[in-house]
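Is this the right way to post structure tokens for a design question? Let me know if I should format differently. Anyway, here goes:
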């Protein structure tokens, strides 16, 4: 049973929450690299300073926000409505599958790779700082690919 359709108030509220949670999830992956560059330019240690300011936030705030983003996205797909008795959006559609795979990969990166790397960087591990930078870049790529899929809906 569909409780809301595309453009309805319920759907739009869900969409607002979906987009808002994505901002919370991805905001740091754009901000902290710039902070790291400024700290390096000032000759200050990056890992301990960022750990002091935001240590553990990936696992406590941004990862859970990313989980909520995906769950709300599935909710949006499910409540989009029907045409001729068939759901408008189905997991068999390429764009929705791309977004789902990206979401799962992003969760793995945030919780499985970034969390431990943040702890190591806080302890002064320079290699962990580089890994965090790489993981952030991968998250940017996932975000771009997912946004492309959601906006242009290939295979729809």
């Amino acid at each position: 049973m569909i409780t809301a359709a595309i453009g309805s108030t319920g759907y739009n509220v869900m969409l607002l929450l979906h987009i808002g949670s994505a901002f919370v999830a991805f905001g740091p992956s754009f901000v902290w690299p710039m902070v790291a560059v400024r700290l390096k330019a000032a000759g200050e240690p990056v890992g301990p300073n960022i750990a002091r300011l935001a240590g553990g936030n990936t696992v406590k705030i941004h990862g859970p926000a990313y989980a909520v983003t995906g769950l709300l996205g599935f909710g949006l797909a499910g409540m989009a409505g029907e045409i001729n008795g068939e759901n408008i959006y189905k997991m068999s559609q390429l764009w929705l599958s791309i977004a789902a795979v990206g979401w799962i990969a992003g969760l793995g990166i945030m919780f499985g790779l970034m969390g431990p790397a943040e702890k190591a960087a806080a302890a002064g591990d320079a290699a962990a700082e580089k890994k965090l930078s790489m993981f952030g870049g991968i998250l940017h790529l996932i975000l771009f690919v997912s946004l492309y899929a959601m906006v242009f809906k290939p295979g729809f």
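Format looks fine. Someone answered above. Worth noting: Residues 57 and 106 are 15 Å apart (CA to CA). Strands lie at 82-83, 86-87.
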